[in-house]
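Following up on my earlier message about zinc ion. Here are the inputs again, as you asked, copied directly from the submission form:
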Amino acid sequence: MPKQKAPKKQLKSYKLNHINRTIQEGDAVLMRSSEPGKPSYVARIEAIETGARGSHARVRVRWYYRPEESIGGRRQFHGAKEVFLSDHYDLQSADTIQGKCKVHSFSSYTKLDSVRNDDFFCRFEYNSATGAFNPDRVAVFCKCEMPYNPDDLMVQCEDCSEWFHPSCIGTTIEAAKKLDHFYCQECSPEQQDLDNSNSTSKKSDDKVKTKRSLEVTKTRNKHTKRSG
Ligand SMILES: [Zn+2]
Ligand SMILES: [Zn+2]
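Thanks, got it. Here's what our run produced:
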């Protein structure tokens, strides 16, 4: 039987002495960027390995991309702490791990009482070669037909349950926070004067809402297709 080269050891978990934390498969971590001054990379640990004698710990990671790093770039609806789970894998020295972080689902992120530095959220998977997102459509809200950015305050109409940006209904964030009740233009005819400056044509017989969505992958083709 031929002798094998020094085998790599796969580890379930590994203690990082330089940050005094133990990492394991599935953990999200911050990794030192190769470009000085750039924010840390966010990655998910897929596997941990060392040389046969336990030296040179390396992690197999799956990168999270920030919106800036995607082909389409950062868009208005992207949150400050949004990352995309990419199909881009790498083998990195465990020394480059700067700390652990938490990548929440979109819905659990929106329920956080406070967002800490190490909190992120992910609602899309991202194909780094084509720039395609999965899911490739996302629900839109408000008159501006934008996907929800969890950094932006929105107010909900008590009648139709649609969400609106304060600026899109002619008010301010401060004023919107003080509203006890809110009815949108379509549900509250007497409020229509508020919005004279907005020239967007509106169909009042369009109250039966179709599920509206935005195609997120094709950045040049923003119009929404309605099914049915
Ligand atoms: Zn809006
Ligand atoms: Zn309404």
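One observation from looking it over: Confidence is low (pLDDT under 50) at residues 199-208, 220-228. Hope that helps, and feel free to reply on this thread.
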